[in-house]
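Inputs:
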Amino acid sequence: MTERSQLAQDLAEVEQVNGEFYAAFERGDLDAMTEIWLDDPNTLCIHPGAEPLRGAASITRSWALIMANVPYIQFFLTDVQVTVHEDVASVTCTENVLTATEQTAQDSFTGAKAIATNVFVRTEDTWRLWIHHASPVISVEHDED
Amino acid sequence: MTERSQLAQDLAEVEQVNGEFYAAFERGDLDAMTEIWLDDPNTLCIHPGAEPLRGAASITRSWALIMANVPYIQFFLTDVQVTVHEDVASVTCTENVLTATEQTAQDSFTGAKAIATNVFVRTEDTWRLWIHHASPVISVEHDED
């Protein structure tokens, strides 16, 4: 395989795994979510506005709690940018989030926006999530000069 | 060098460069700040609450603006955790920030807290910053059960 097509394949694989991460969240599929993470005590997860969590046990517990409390969530990812640096890949994306809770009236949804940095590590068979850092967007900076 | 002492050296070097990043910000030293970043179009900088910036030109411009508008800033880093994965290292830390602006009365400071993920890449002579993602802390989650 040429270097260029290897890179193209890496980028496509990483974007796919990144999509699977959000799909697992949407389905409330804790097994799939756990599978996506690297099995390493140094994995890192920062939910929007929250303190960092480290390691599979803490991170899995946080997803179980979130999934139990969010009956409906849907992500529309925009501005997805993937970079591969040898065996580590970073994805940044804007998470446009649509949620409904038990308290929400039917047909009523809440929208929110966050920015995420997801760092994946290449393993033997696929890419695994090493770092997820999501943060609320407060100010919008335009940088299009 | 044994594998263990190589890792210890890597961890120490990364923590040092991470400290230099904040020191450059505190001194308002744009040259030092620019030097710390990897020279790559895919570098990524997310200031607290802001949209992602990519590449040296955008990132340097943002630091120039921030430095011009913040006459005094001091960082007290806590909960610094460094992880090395081959040629990529991640640092998470809590940025306890003390700032003063032109408008602030003398001897009056504002405190703030953010969580940062900094990802560094090993280069020939040192580690360079690839990703800086800082986000405001809104809720405090205790996870000490």
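Residues 65 and 137 of chain A are 23 Å apart (CA to CA). Flag for discussion at group meeting.
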